[in-house]
Amino acid sequence: MKVIEVENLTKRFGSFTAVDNISFSVEKGEIFGFLGANGAGKTTAMRMLCGLLVPTSGKGVVAGYDIQHQSEKVKASIGYMSQKFALYEDLKVWENIRLYAGIYGVPEKETKERTDMLLAELGFEKEKESLVKSLPLGWRQKLAFSVSIFHNPEIVFLDEPTGGVDPVTRRQFWEMIYKASERGITVFVTTHYMDEAEYCNRVSIMVDGRIDALDSPSALRREFAAASMDEVFRHLARKSKNNGL
Amino acid sequence: MTHSTPHKISDTPAISCRNISKSYGKVNALHDITFDVQQGEIFGVIGPDGAGKSTLFRILTTLLLPDTGDATVEGFDVVKEYKKIRKIVGYMPGKFSLYQDLTVEENLRIFATLFNTTIEENYHLVKDIYSQIEPFKTRRAGALSGGMKQKLALSCALIHKPSILFLDEPTTGIDPVSRKELWEMLRKLKSQGITIIVSTPYMDEASLCDRIALIQNGSFLRIDTPDNIVKSFGNRLISVRGENMGELLKRLREIPGVISCFAFGDSHHVAAEKSSNQLNSLTADTLAENLKKQGYTNLEVKNIEPGIEDCFMELTAK
Question: Is B9 in CB contact (< 8 Å) with chain A?
Answer without folding.
Answer: no
